[in-house]
Amino acid sequence: MVFLLIFVPLIIAVAALVVPSNRWRPWLIPLAGVIHLGMTVWTLSCAHPVAGLQGWLALDPLGKLVLGLISVIFTICGFYAPAYLALRPERQNRFFCACLLGMLGMMTLVVLSHHLGLMWVAIEATTLCTAPLLFFNHSARSLEATWKYLLIGSVGIALALLGSFFLAYSSLHAGLVPTLLLDDLVKMAPQLSRPWLHAAFVLLLVGYGTKMGLAPMHTWKPDAYGEAPGLVGALLAGGVTSCAFLSILRFYQICLAAPEAAFAREILVFIGLFSMAVAAVFMVRQRDFKRMLAYSSVEHMGILVLGIGLGGLAAFGALLHMITNGVTKGVLFLSAGNIHRAYGSKLTDDVRGAMRRLPVSGVTFLAGFLIVTGSPPGGPFISEFTILTGAINGGHYAVAALYLAVLAIVFIGMGTTVLRVVQGVPSPQAASTAYRDRPQLVIPILIFLGLSILLGLYIPNSLTTALHDAVAYLEVKP
Amino acid sequence: MKDFIDPILVVVLLLNFVALGASRLRTLIQAVAVQGILLGFMIVMAHGSFMIWVALMAGATVALKGVVIPRMLFHAVREVVIRREVEPIVGFVASLFLGAVGTALALLFSKTLPIAHDHMSSLVVPASLSTVLTGFLILTTRSKAITQVVGYLILENGVFIFGLLLMEAIPFLVELGVLLDLFVAIFVMGIIIHKISREFSSVSTSMLSELKE
Question: Who has the most CB within 10 Å: A63, A162, B5, B80?
């Protein structure tokens, strides 16, 4: 099963390269999504542990959460893809489809790998798969975005490789058999050489933090999300960043087992708050609504590492937030993509009255904004509130106050931009473009929206159990 | 065999300075190619015994880092040439000076990281860190897209040098995966450089400044 989860998307990717019809090829994406989702549901419901390759591949409680998330996001986005690509008949979509499917396979490999070297290879592979996706529009601006994404991402990941080597060396230095297997490292964590462990954690946080988009390593994000098709933005913001987050959690787990909790927690809390603050600064008076979404992603990545750094209840909130944020980002990016297409611009100077011009996408964009900034009854409200409760219960009053202040600034900053987009009367030339909301392009958004509201109203027991398992698995007692 | 590692590492460090001071793209790429080949030799020496997978690994490193990737870069230079100079943002003398400072810092920093075993040269860690820093320096202070790729390669070489300490820990499969990723990354970057040169009729990344706040 482990191998099927990884290889089925890759096989379908090869099929996408072979299929000659530009019109029918995109249907392979939802097909792969449905198969992957089916296998994921089957795997998650099966009681016996899933593993392979002598401990190299295994599905642990943290992996279960991320696997479920990426599978759901990919499937919903998959149904959006054929309709989106049908709007672009002039563009050859062979590589687009293949890279999208390859990205699914590589994300699955990241989730399943318990060998840190293999995980590195998979993460770098997701970077390489996404580069052609960003370049889909073949414009000068998308070229610039792709270049920055590829170069900054690759350099960041090279540092993560150095960090992984440092970690392996810390076991060698302690006189143990050097290894990069996660389970062995967690077991021998208390004996690891401390200076090397510290240096490794910092390098890994910088490296995978670049991929996740934490400030100050986030500079590729506004460009990449701004130029990528909405569909790719949704997958990057919900899927790839969650995978990078998972890889940071892997090393955090080793630090906790070491036990070097205080060291790791301090860094995570600081970088989390810093990312939130930087994102808030750039979100105020942001004229480009797709770049605004990128900064929103930076902010939410900050919330994730902040919650993990606070630990306990806040860690539970952070893992829940990974899911609620991922689903809500689907609403925002796909709606923004539709609005962008209808107006041919993503600047608030040109885009007005989206609610009149696009009755569905405009409203979902507004709803997505309200939910992602933590308004009830959305899912992020529950998760952000849990993190706040965790911070206050833990006695981190200053952190809680800063957290609330930044959330308020973000709400106002993002609100100004979003309201400008959705309110008012569309200009005559915007009304004249051919694009209209159509079912295939809005139903996926409505599903995302439904899921994110559902998570705010009712969290299924199985998810609560999975989250508790994941926190217990992460916060190992040394 | 291991006695040879130290002298080779010194050559690698010198090549960093050659790269920092290079004013022509050709010299820069040649320096990286030689570094790649030396890396392959060091893999064999670090391991001591000569097994098939060591030979394969060393062969793959030499082939990719010493031959294939440099050839791709030379091809890119020929294909998109406008001017063959490096076009530094920070001058060569200043770069060399920064490189020297970086190497000194790497030596100092590696003192704080304890090195346990006696069977490996003590120069590996500082050489690795200083190469990583050199890569960074070239990445950030040169404006051509190709030079940025070379900077990335030097940075990767630095990471690989550290990997010499861990020959037993890193399975063959993973090392091969890392090399493959590196190759594909450079390949994709090559394609983008080609597109940049077509789009802007220049390969300078200073043209890539439209996206900003």
Answer: A162
Helix (H) or strand (E) holding A51: strand A51-52
CA-based torsion, A25, A31, A37, A43: positive or negative: negative
pLDDT tens digits, residue range A103-131?
999 999 999 999 999 999 999 999 999 99
Q: Which of A371, A382, A392 lies closest to A449, judged by CA?
A: A371
Q: To probe the interface with A, which of B134, B166, B173, B175 has the most A CB atoms within 10 Å?
A: B166
How remote is the C-alpha of A213 from its chain's centroid? 9
Q: Is the ipTM of this complex over 0.90?
A: yes
Q: How far is CA A264 from the centre of its chain?
A: 22
Which residues in chain A are closer than 8 Å to B115, comparing Cβ atoms?
A: 173
Total domains present in chain A: 1
Contacts of A165 in chain B (CB under 8 A): 159, 162-163, 165-166, 170
For residue A69, is it within any domain?
A: no
Considering the domain boundaries, does residue A27 fall inside one?
A: no
Q: Does the residue A321 lie in any domain?
A: yes
Q: Which domain holds residue A380?
A: 262-459
Flag whether pLDDT at B82 surpasses 70: no
Burial A217-235 (b: 16+ CB within 10 A, else e): bbbbbbbbbbbbbbbbbbb
Q: Is A270 inside any structural domain? A: yes
* Chain B environment of A131 (Cβ under 8 Å): 188, 192
Q: Where are the alpha helices (DSSP H) in A258-396?
A: 261-283, 289-310, 313-343, 354-357, 359-372, 379-393
